[in-house]
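The following record pairs a protein chain with its ligand, adenosine-5'-triphosphate.
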Amino acid sequence: MLRVQNASVFFPGRDGGVIHALDRASLEIDANSIVVALGASGCGKSTLLNAIAGFLPLSDGSITLDGQPVERPGADRGVVFQKDTLLPWKSVLDNVALGLDFAGLPLRERRDRAAELLRLVGLEGFAKSAPHELSGGMRQRVGIARALATDPKILLMDEPFGALDSLTREQMQELLIDVWARTGKRIFFITHSIEEALFLGTTVVVMSPRPGRIVARFDLDFVRRFAAERDVRAILSDPEFGDLHNRIRDLVHRPHHATVHRGETLQ
Ligand SMILES: Nc1ncnc2c1ncn2[C@@H]1O[C@H](COP(=O)(O)OP(=O)(O)OP(=O)(O)O)[C@@H](O)[C@H]1O
């Protein structure tokens, strides 16, 4: 279990004031769940992810992963960003194996494991390619494979599909659901897209800016339905999907009119 309790992050503002980038955020990410954070620009989504990754210290509150305090980056958390961070001079296979260089595994085992992960993300034919030979969507697949290389307990994804065209984005969402269904990894995923949040999240937390707060939480099962039935049209045309879309859109645009916690519903 990843547990974020009353986490706050303050930054010094230019005028001598304090920016409340994250204000008393609490959430839990269980095995087999995908928690999606959704909200307008500046509501603290990346701050929350960076704190979970151990890149950023909390000003207050705590984060634990399976009971251990999160204080610095570690191999138990794999991170994927919007912009890929692949090394251009290394092959696709070696980029994936990179995370294992530090694990002390023999070269042969590193390469076998990397090849297995490239199969998982549908890139088995591209092991020897250079990153620049791949499309944006393919590079993000490599990023996902690399983040999984150390067999982390959780995958942290900061708008990983935000720069992709809409068709590629849909393919990547389905790929991520496949990876999730096969590996059972828990995932923390950030997006600006309400549709993406509803489609991917087992839980969606809606955040609002200044101060960055979690203002609503929805537990959903569209993603489990997709994993079982693979019928994206049935999900998108489900009236409940449309209804939630409208309610969340209202919340994102007028976040202060309600605070909703797990188990409660918005009227
Ligand atoms: N290092 C920093 N120093 C000062 N202020 C910061 C710093 N990092 C973030 N902030 C501020 O904290 C707030 C939350 O930023 P954050 O990047 O977490 O938001 P976000 O929801 O991820 O936004 P976006 O969707 O645009 O990426 C913003 O007001 C931002 O300007």
